[in-house]
Design goal:
alpha/beta; six-stranded mixed beta sheet; two-stranded parallel sheet; disordered N terminus
Length: 355
């Protein structure tokens, strides 16, 4: 299997060699058949032969790979294991041998003189910060080895790569608000099967939410001890709008001293199944929706798991104007991935509604 996997790359590499050598062969035959050696060539013939002789290994590699070989290697090449390299090196007797001198671009005397006249002096090159015209070939030794005594081109440094896009620093969560933030948390698991007790392990998403929030707050308290988790309540309801809204309304209408909550995190029902209606049930109870918050959290977590982009969860402030709610995925792993992005930002929402 390893040899078969290496074959397409080796075949492509060998194809570069044969493409260039065939171009040289056709150019040589054209000189003879068209009478160029006798001085009766046309401008058209000269241009054709110049193009054939001007085809280099790098251009052939770009044609075969569909991009520069350096870019292709960075995107697709993987480091071979020791066992793969042992098998690969054992096949050296079968490797094709090409004279790299024949693979170099050829210029006519007229073209060479014209090129020298167009090139700036060494001083002007240095002042302009450009590289010499001759750069190291991209020829690979994957499937070909040098002909004995073949000249080795002098190594030169690669031209600097220009950055096309601005590089952004890693995401850093905002610092918690300066005011005291006390979180009374309600965790609502929305699942038909969990509500019926059909899982052998019991509900896993609800405990995952509590664990993720607790861990996140412990991390925040190292620098901001004014953030506290004072209370956690958990409920499990089926994928039913009235059941979802009933549980949310009960928590939202209770007084803080009587067990009310100021943060509700639902888990589950954010997908595309017929009974996944948690976002719809939530939106009907919002005074202010904050869809951008969940969009941001989803965008960040999709860098870890692309399927996170399919979550339809929303967030916002309930009609009581004192409770923040957000819809999390039902997957416990997804919960642990999204809470570190969601919670630090939601603290600023709580600071606004408590002011």
């Amino acid at each position: 299997f390893d040899e078969l996997r290496a074959f397409p790359v080796s075949a492509c590499c060998a194809g570069h060699q044969w493409m260039v050598l065939e171009a040289r062969k056709i150019a040589a035959e054209a000189k003879t058949t068209d009478g160029i050696t006798s001085g009766s060539s046309s401008n058209h013939d000269d241009k054709t032969i110049a193009l054939l002789n001007g085809l280099g290994y790098d251009e052939a590699a770009k044609y075969v790979y569909g991009m520069h070989y350096k870019d292709w290697k960075a995107r697709h090449s993987k480091k071979a294991s020791d066992d793969q390299m042992d098998r690969f090196n054992a096949s050296k007797p079968l490797w094709a041998k090409h004279d790299k001198k024949l693979l170099e671009k050829k210029l006519t005397a007229t073209e060479s003189d014209a090129q020298q006249q167009q090139q700036p002096s060494n001083e002007s090159k240095a002042s302009a910060g450009t590289m010499p015209a001759t750069t190291k070939s991209l020829q690979s030794n994957v499937c070909c080895q040098d002909v004995p005594d073949a000249p080795t081109p002098a190594p030169t440094s690669a031209p600097p790569q220009k950055k096309k896009f601005r590089e952004l620093p890693p995401y850093q969560p905002p610092a918690p608000p300066a005011t005291d933030i006390k979180i009374s948390l309600g965790v609502l698991t929305v699942s038909d099967r969990a509500s019926k007790g059909e899982y052998e392990t019991g509900d896993l998403s609800g405990p995952a939410v509590e664990d993720a929030v607790t861990s996140c707050i412990e991390g925040l308290r190292k620098d901001s001890p004014n953030v506290q988790l004072t209370n956690v309540q958990k409920k499990i309801v089926p994928d039913d709008k009235s059941a979802i809204q009933g549980a949310i309304e009960q928590w939202a209408n209770e007084d803080g001293d009587a067990g009310g909550v100021n943060v509700i995190l639902t888990s589950g029902g954010t997908g595309f199944a017929l009974r996944d209606i948690t976002p719809e049930a939530t939106k009907e109870m919002l005074r202010h929706e904050c869809a951008g918050l969940m969009s941001f959290c989803t965008a960040e977590t999709s860098k870890i798991q692309p399927l996170a982009a399919l979550s339809r969860g929303t967030s916002g402030i309930l009609n009581n104007n004192r409770t923040f709610i957000a819809n999390l995925p039902g997957n416990p792993k997804g919960v642990h991935e999204i809470v570190p992005y969601l919670l630090p930002l939601s603290l600023h929402v709580l600071a606004d509604i408590q002011a």
